[in-house]
Amino acid sequence: MAQPPRNPLAWLLIALAMTLVVLLLVLPLVLIFSKAFGAGLDVLLANLVDSDMQSAIRLTLWVAAITVPVNLVFGVALAWCVTRYDFRGRSLLLTVIDLPFAMSPVVAGLCYLVTYGITSPLGQWLSAHDIQVMFSPIGITLVTIFVTCPYVARILIPLMESQGSDEEQAALTLGAGGWQAFWHVTLPNIKWALLYGVVITNARAVGEFGAVSVVSGAVRGQTLTLPLHVELLHMDYNTVGAFTAAGLLACMALLTLVIKTLMEWHQQRSQRLAAASSDGDTA
Fold this sequence. Notes:
Layout: H1 8-36, H2 41-48, H3 51-84, H4 90-97, H5 99-102, H6 105-116, H7 121-128, H8 137-148, H9 150-163, H10 166-173, H11 178-207, H12 210-216, H13 226-235, H14 239-282
Helix pairs in contact: 1-14, 2-14, 3-8, 3-9, 3-11, 6-8, 6-12, 8-11, 8-12, 9-11, 10-11, 11-14, 13-14
């Protein structure tokens, strides 16, 4: 359990940590918003309503809206399989889950480019059927799903392993179906971890740059997400526009942080109330 600092060295470490937080985390955020508002509110609004900016915002939200539900289902199914069943290849599956963590996003983008690009047999077949995957929102969505797919599963697996399956087995013994056991027993036990995974996945999907830059083609107004639009505006010497787009991404990140903090606070409060209720019953 954490204790209050009781000596000068502890206070020195705390001061050093606070200084680093300000220099590395807070100051860059302040500079982003100061640069965005530096030329005045009119210029900021003009950049916000720019057609390319609007297109980048729509594409970013669209990719996140597809990525999060897909990875939600994938993460729950994967966590269920590896925590409820012991099968040959389970260890290999647990290792492969971490592949997007270990692989550079740029390499992931290149893998998709090689697989679905026009030079591959699959890409040629898709092109013959007028289906364009690379340099389109489809390809951007696919690589974003790949990059963000481990988050939900990796958050759920330790929790579901620690909880075990006794409650689900009891529900099945009492006559519940598999779906009823999941909906009424498993889901309530993992709901906060699941929401946490969704928040983290959404944050990564919105801010992904490396893999998306390889497969997007950087077509203005069509295949530029907000992170790519920041780079393009910076290369165009539109500093205020670049910081405006960066400010939007920062606002999304801060919103994610607020939601994550509220969820942690609610979870801790629920645990304290449950512990107090348990102590009362024992007394």
